[in-house]
Write a structure and sequence with these properties.
By secondary structure, the chain is of the alpha+beta class. The relative contact order is 0.16. Strand 2 and strand 3 form a beta hairpin. Helix 3 packs across helix 4. A five-stranded mixed β-sheet has the order 1-2-3-4-5, sandwiched between helices. The chain is built from four helices and five strands, in the order E-H-H-E-E-E-H-E-H. It has a single domain, classed as Gcn5-related N-acetyltransferase (GNAT) (Aminopeptidase).
């Protein structure tokens, strides 16, 4: 697996840290997961042990924690299908989302397109209920491409 090591700072002193399977990162990610207001991939909080195994499996192409003034405020990842997941407390949306998108555009290249499987560009999954997040990415010029529905 390829790991990218760099430390970019924004004017607001946001930093990104590559996720590692160490206790500190596992604990922070578990806490961030528990504090989410909106979820896409799960309905219930996983057990700590299940979460620890998930982090150790490092299922994403790239995975980072975001900090501000030495406190972790969120996470983002890039998957092999060029999808991006971003989680932040909404009070950081207006400044941190543009910072994250800038890093992704500057430092990463999408995986090659695969017809009907992988689009040629990055795309962000955003919970339908999270209108504030949607407003920020629209202001950044991101265009919606589809609406997905879960069949329960």
């Amino acid at each position: 697996m390829c790991y990218v090591l760099f430390n970019l700072r924004s004017p607001m002193s946001y930093k990104i840290h590559e996720v590692q399977s160490k206790s500190e990162h596992i604990d922070v990610l578990f806490s961030l997961l528990a504090s989410r207001k909106y979820n896409i991939s799960h309905k219930e909080q996983p057990s700590y042990l299940s979460h620890k195994r998930f982090v150790a499996s490092h299922p994403y192409r790239y995975w980072f924690l975001i900090s501000l003034l030495d406190s972790y405020i969120g996470t983002f990842y890039i998957q092999y299908n060029n999808s991006i997941g971003i989680y932040l407390d909404s009070k950081y949306y207006s400044e941190a989302i543009p910072f994250i998108i800038k890093i992704i555009k500057f430092k990463f290249k999408p995986c090659p397109a695969l017809k009907s499987a992988i689009p040629q560009e990055f795309y962000i999954n955003v919970p339908n209920e999270d209108r504030d997040f949607q407003d920020v990415v629209k202001l950044l010029g991101c265009k919606p491409v589809q609406i997905s529905y879960r069949i329960d």
